[in-house]
Amino acid sequence: MAMxxxxxxxxxxxxxxxxxxxxxxxxxxxRSDYLQALRERDAEAAAELSALLAAGEGGESPLxxxxxxxxxxxxxxxxxxxxxxxxxxxxRLLGSGGMGEVWLAQSSADAPWVAxxxxxxxLSSRVLSERLARERDILKRLRHPGIAALLDxxxxxxxxxxxxxxxxxxxxxxxxxxQRGWDLAQKLRVFAAIADAVAAAQSHLIVHRDLxxxxxxxxxxxxxxxLDFGIAKLLDDSxxxxxxxxxxxLGRALTPAYAAPEQMRGxxxxxxxxxxxxxxxxxxxxxxxxxxxxxxxxxxxxxxxxARRERGDRQLAQQLxxxxxxxxxxxxxxxxxxxxxxxxxLAADIHAWLEQRPLRAQPDAWHYRLRKLxxxxxxxxxxxxxxxxxxxxxxxxxWQRSVVAELAAARAERAAARAExxxxxMESLFANDLPGMAREDLPxxxxxxxxxxxxxxxxxxxxxGARLNLLLSLARIQVGQRMWQAAEASxxxxxxxxxxxxxxxxxxxxxxxxxLASTRTQxxxxxxxxxxxxxxxxxxxxxxxxxxxxxxxxALQQLIAAEVDxxxxxxxxxxxxxxxxxxxxxxxxxxxxxxxxLTQASVAHSYDQQYRAEAEELAIQALQVARQAFGEVxxxxxxxxxxxxAVLRIKGDVPAARPHAQRAAELARQVYPDTHxxxxxILEELARVQMxxxxxxxxxxxxxxxxxxxxxxxxxxxxxxxxxxxxxxxxLLRADRLDEAASQAxxxxxxxxxxxxxxxxxxxxxxxxxxxxxxxxxxxxxxxALLPAVSAPPPADLAPAQxxxxxxxxxxxxxxxxxAAQPGLLAELVARISIEQAGARDMASVMLTAATxxxxxxxxATARLALDAAAVRIAQDDSTHLSEVLALLEVIxxxxxxxxxxxxxxxxxxxxxxxxxxxxxxxxxxxxxxxR
Amino acid sequence: xxEAPIAAIGEVIDELRRLARSARRRLxxxxxxxxxxxxxxxxxKLSKSSSASALDRRHFFALAARAMREILVDAARRRQVxxxxxxxxxxxxxxxxxxxxxxxxxxxxxxxxxxxxxxxAEVVMCRFFAGxxxxxxxxxxxxxxxxxxxxxxxxxxxxxxxxxxxx
Lengths: 932, 167
Hints:
The complex is a heterodimer. Chain A is mainly alpha-helical. Chain A has 42 helices and 9 strands. Chain A is elongated and about 145 Å long. In chain A, 43% of the residues are buried. By secondary structure, chain B is mostly helical. Chain B is globular and about 40 Å long.
C-alpha cells in the first residue's frame, strides 16, 4: 500500500483523528449529537468521521488477528511466598539485585533459615548448573566465621538455578559504624576481621571480586560477615555478574567505585584486586568518603588532609597521619604490584597498627621502629634507654634526645625495664624473623654489635639486672649471626655479672652456663663431644635448681640439635623422650612451645632407620598442632608441613613426602614475603624432594630461587647463600650443567671457607662437587689442586662420623691423578680406609664407590677388599638400600664367569631403586656391552 | 516515549531473537512462545549494555514491543519472499500466508499511524506485536487504560480506512 501523503492530507487526517478522539470520549448516546453538529460545519468531515467510527468499533481488522506471540512484562515478582524451590520453602523476599531475587527460606519448620538466591541468566540453565556444581564444591569448602557460607546449589522445577546461602542478619557496614558509634580503633578492629575473612578465602584461591560495604554485614555482636563470596566469580564465568557488568560497561552511569583499575580495564583479577576493594571500604569506613585521585596513575589524595578539610575533623586527621595513610596508599596503589599482595598482608598491617608494632608498609627506618617500640613498652628510666641507644647507634644525638623525651613522658615499670624492653628491642632489630629486611639495610650489623658489646661490657650506668639481660640478648643475637667468639665473651661477662644481680634465681645462672657451653661446642668443633657433655651437665644443674619448664624445653631442643649434628642418635633420642614427657606433664604450654618441642623431637628420631616411624609420628603431631593452633594458612603450618616432608624423604618415602612439601611450599609462598629465610627453607625441602623424584630441572629452578632469596636476605657471600650454592652445585652436576656446577661450587667453597673450619662437612661437600665438576670437564689439574692427597690422614678436628666425606674427596683425587698411577693409589687408599670404624652407613657408600672405580680399572684385588669392607658395613646398617648395589658389583667382580642374566637382573634391581645414572649401573652397562 | 537509539533496538532484537531461539527449542511444537523468562533475561542482558543507560522497565518494554515488531515483520516478509516452506525453525515465524500478509499490512500502516499520532503506533506495537494487555500497555506508555482503548479503536479505524482507500 503506497502511502504518498501530501501535507494537506496529513493535516486533514490529524484533524480527523482529534475529532475521533473527542467522539470516542463521549458516551454512545452523545455521539450522534456531536456528529450532527459537525455535519453542519463540515459535511465531508462528518461523513468520514462516521465511517472511521464504524470501522474502528466494528467490522474486521487486521489488528484482530494477532500473531501467537506474547511478551509478558510482569517483570519483578517471579515467585511467591510459600513456593517450593528444591527442598526449600520460600518465606519472604529479602531483596532483588541485578542477578535475581533473594528469598528467605527454610527446608522444614525447625530447620535454620537460609537465603536462596535465584539466578537469572540468559544462559541455558543446564550449562549454568553444571558450572555451579563445579564451583560449588570449591566454595562450599570455604568455611569461615566471617563469611556467609554457601550451603548448596540446585535447579528449581522450572529450571531456574539457585544458590542456598547462610542467612545472615545484620546491618551493612557503614550503617553499623555510624549507628553504633564506633571509634577509630573499633573500626579498625572490625576491618581487621573483614580482612582476615578475605584472607582465609584467598588461601583457598577464591577472590571475591565484588567487595563493597553493602556486601559486608555486621551482626548484633559486632562481627562482620561477608556476603556473596566467590559468587561473583562463579557467575562471572557464566557471563552473569559484577565483573561482566563492569567489563561491558565502561561508560555506565553507576560508578564502580570499588573496582580496581585492572578490573575496569577488564584485565585478570588477583588477590591484589580484593585488596584494592578493601582499601576503598576502609577509606570509606574511616572517613565517610571514597578515595580520590587527581589522575588514574597517581596515588590517592591524602586522607588526613581530606579529613581536616572535607570533614573538619582535626582529631581524625591526626590519627590518620603517618601509618594509616601509608597503609591506605599501599592498599589503593593504582598498580597492583605496588599494593599489599593479598588480604593477609593487609590484615597483618592492620593488626600491627592495633598492636602498635611497625607496619610492613612503612619503609624500614630505625627511628620509626624505635618509636613504635617505645610506645609498646614502658621503660624504667630514660637513662637506660640512652645507654641502649648509645650501645647501638653511637651518633645521631638529636633524635636520640627526642626519643628520650618521649620516654620521659612514659610511665615506668621495673619489670618491663628489665626483661621485655631490652630484649624485645634488640631482638626485634636483629632477629631473623624480620620480614624481608635485607642484611645490607642494617648499617654494618657486625660493627654495631661489636661496638655494642664493648659498651655493654663496660657500661655501668645501667642497673645490673638490665645489663645482664642486655648481655644475654646480645649473646643470643650473636649466636644467631654465628659470631661464636663474641657470644662467648658476652656470656662470660654475663656470668661474671650474675652475682651482683638482685633476685636472680639460681637456675638462671646455671642456664647461662648452659648457653655458654652450647656456644663453646661451636667454637671447638673437634671437641664437640666435650662441649655437649658440658651442656648436658649445665642443663641438669639448671633443672635441679628449678628452671621452669619452658626454659628446660628450649635447652633440651638445643641439646638435641647439637647431638643430631654429631650423630649421637641415642643421646638425642633420650633427650627427645624427656621432651615428650615434659609435653605430657605440662598441658598448658603455649602452642608455639609445643610445636617446637614436637618438631625437635621428630628431628631427634629422623636419622636412624629404626626410629623413622617415631620421627614421622612426631612430625605429624607437630603438623596437627600447627594447623589447630595457628590455622591452615600460617607460617607454622608451612614449616611443620615441611618438616614432615623432610622426615618422609629421609626415610625414603619420597612419594609420601611430595604432597606435604608441595603444600608447604604453596603456603610459604602465600604467607611469607619473597626473601624471607623461612620461605627459602621450606622451598628448599620441595627442591630436595623434586631432585629425589628425578625432577632435576624443577629442582634446579627452585634451588636457584632459594639462593636468590638467601642472597637478598643474608648477602652474596653469606654462609647461608654459600650453603645453598653447594646444594645447587650438586643439582647442577646431576643435570650435567658442569660449568655452572663448577662455578657455584667454587664460590661456595670460597665463602664457606671464610666462615667454617676447613674440615666442616659443608665445605668438604662443596669441594667434592667442585672437584667432580672439574673432573668431568677434564680440568684435571684444577680438580687435583682442590683435593687432599691420597696419603693425607683426615684432619684432627674432623669428627669421626664425618670422615667419610674426606675419603670421598680422596677418591676423587685418585681420579685426578695420572692414569698409570691410579691403581696403586686406589689400592693404598682402600687399604687404609677399609679399617675405618665410624659411620658404617656412609662408609659403605664410599667403599662401593671405591669398588666401582677398582672394577673399572680391572683391579680385582682392590675391588674385593672394598666390597668386603662394604658388605660388613651394609650388614650393620643398610638404611640406604645399598645391598642391591653391592650385589650388582659382586656379580661384576665375579669376572668372566659372570652370568649375564644374573648381571642383568642385578642391574635392574639397582635401577629400580636408584636411577640409570648410578655409577654401578654404568659399569654394568659397560660390561653387558653391545647387548643393551 | 522517548525515541530510543537505534543501537538499543538492535540489541533488543538480537537478544529477543536469541532467547526465542533457545526458548523455542524447549517448547513443545505449536506452543505459544511466551515466557516471562524471555523478557526478564532480555531485560537483564540489555540493562547491562552500554548504549542503554539507566534502562527502566517501561522504557525497556516499550523497546521490546518495538523490537517484536521488527522481528515479526521481518519474519513475515521473508516468508513471503521464500514461499510457504521458508525456514520452519524460524523464530517468531508466521504460521500461514495470511498471517504473514497481515503482519506486513499492519507494519505498513504503522508508518501512517505514527504520522497522525505517534502514540497510535506505540499502542499498536504494544498490543499487536508484543501482545501486552490494555493495562500493561497503559502502564508502559504512561497513559490511561481508556486512552489505550481509544487509540486501539482509532488504529483500527485508520487501518480500515487505508485498506479500503489506497493513497
